[in-house]
Design brief:
Blueprint (H helix, E strand, L loop, with lengths): L1 H9 L8 E4 L3 E6 L4 E4 L4 E4 L24 E3 L2 E2 L5 H11 L4 H7 L18
Antiparallel strand pairs: 1-4, 2-3, 5-6
Length: about 120
């Protein structure tokens, strides 16, 4: 990733490229006897000159399960506090998508953010 970013800088393109990796594939934090089941959430990496970096978006989960963790809905399945839709909305705005069109391309966005609300991912 560092070499890719360096190459963008060498080509004078670093301010025009955002690298985004993500997955909505997560795992439960408890065993089903043979491993763990599919869960919600996952990790996302976003980098590039336009990004306001060095921050974690969302809440870092409590390291407990059950009643010790309000995000645990059962069996170690944690509810994410930031949706992929919110990340994609900030990136879409960077690409020039107007707020009014965001609910067309991200129909679940309204479940996670108020109209016009931004994460602040891009400066």
């Amino acid at each position: 990733m560092g070499a890719f970013q360096s190459a963008l800088e060498d080509m004078g393109l670093a301010d025009r490229v955002v690298t985004f990796t993500g997955s909505d594939f997560g795992r439960t934090l408890t065993s089903n006897g043979n491993g763990s089941d599919h869960g919600w959430g996952g990790n996302t990496l976003v980098m590039g000159d336009p990004i306001v970096g060095g921050r974690i978006f969302g809440d870092y989960p409590v390291l407990g399960l059950g009643d010790d963790n309000p995000l645990d809905v059962s069996d170690g399945v944690l509810i994410p506090t930031t949706s992929t839709d919110q990340l994609c909305a900030d990136l879409s705005r960077w690409f020039g998508v107007q707020d009014a069109a965001l609910t067309e391309i991200l129909p679940n966005l309204r479940r996670f953010a108020a109209p016009g609300e931004r994460l602040g991912l891009i400066g």
